[in-house]
Amino acid sequence: MPRITLTPDQPFSLDLSLSCGQVFSWEKEGGVWTGVVGSRVIRITQRGDSLSFSGADPGFIRHYFGLDDDLPDILSSIDRDPIIHAAIERNRGLRIIRQPPWECLASYICATYANIPGIKRRIFLLRQNLGDPVPGRRDGVYSFPSPHTLAGAEPCVLSGCRLGYRSAYLAKTARLIAGDPAWEERVHRLPYREAQKELLRFSGVGKKVADCVLLFAFGKWEAFPVDTWIQRIITTCYPDAGPLKTYDQISAFCRSHFGPWAGYAQEYLYCHRTTLARPCGDLSP
Q: What's the rounded Cα separation, in Å, for the pair 250 and 207?
């Protein structure tokens, strides 16, 4: 298997990065993570500073896992208070994964008001029922269905993926994107706020879904998704910020407080959420 040797000054935790809720198509068994990214079936494991993998070339692995980002510099820039400092210390090596935009957008439309096991089940069923078999494999592994495939899917097939009310949103967005092949390039070019407005025109996309997609698929690092966990952390652990009641108020405060890499702060706070859900004076293990 090909290998990448990590340098000591650029920490990376494969387990944290794949288990913290960014992505939904990876599973770990016997110390090996297996995931489907586009038409690739990737197997990867980490032993100390060595990554061993199959199914992709080293350049893809480096890009997908953000291994060329200067993580110490990023963490230094967001390490501005004891709350985020504790999250960084406990989860050092967590990196934001760069996901394929359409797959990320569709996955987060499916993810609204659901827990991670439920989201994974929906994504698995979408692949199984509507995806294409991955070339060269005979083990029933399927790629994520294209916008054109989902746009033409029968409602009963989508219902079989346990999407509930989300199936109508996903089908409508798939139809829009199937007829707009330039959408991805357009979002990449736009600055953050205009890119967010562009995504909000899609069915099933609110501000939280838009910010997740901008952060995880488009590298808009100032995007700061706010769910109920993050809302609780910010409103209880940052009392000096004043009354923060709306999504826009919370995300604006966090962009101002954490700076241009605020999205990284969001992911570290989210990964540390069960500890930060305690009274914020208690950061003990």
A: 12
- Lookup: tokens for 63: 């890009």
CA angle 190, 249, 230 (to 5 degrees): 90
For residues 225 and 210, is the Cβ–Cβ distance under 8 A?
Answer: no
CATH class of the region 101-216 = mainly alpha
Does 139 score more than 60 pLDDT? yes
Helix extents (H) in the chain: 14-19, 58-64, 71-78, 82-91, 101-110, 116-130, 147-151, 155-159, 166-178, 183-189, 192-200, 207-216, 228-237, 247-258, 262-271, 273-276
Length of the chain: 285
Locate 80 and state its tokens: 């501005």
In the chain, how many H helices and how many E strands? 16, 5
Mean pLDDT, rounded, of the chain: 92
Q: Are 143 and 38 in contact (CB under 8 A)?
A: yes
Please list, in sequence order, all residues whose beta carbon lies within 8 angstroms of the beta carbon of residue 197, skipping any fewer than 6 positions away.
none
**Predicted confidence band at 279 (pLDDT cuts at 50, 70, 90)?**
low
Q: Which of 28, 14, 6, 11 is nearest to 88 (CA)?
A: 11
* Phi and psi angles of residue 34, each rounded to the nearest 5 degrees, phi first: -125, 130
* Number of alpha carbons in the 13 Å side-chain half-sphere of residue 150: 35
Percentages helix, strand, coil for the chain (3-state, rounded to 5) are: 50, 10, 40
Check if the beta carbon of residue 75 is closer than 8 Å to that of residue 264: yes
Q: Is the pTM of the predicted complex or chain greater than 0.90?
A: yes
CATH architecture of 3-68: 2-Layer Sandwich (3.30)
Per-residue tokens: 255: 């962009």
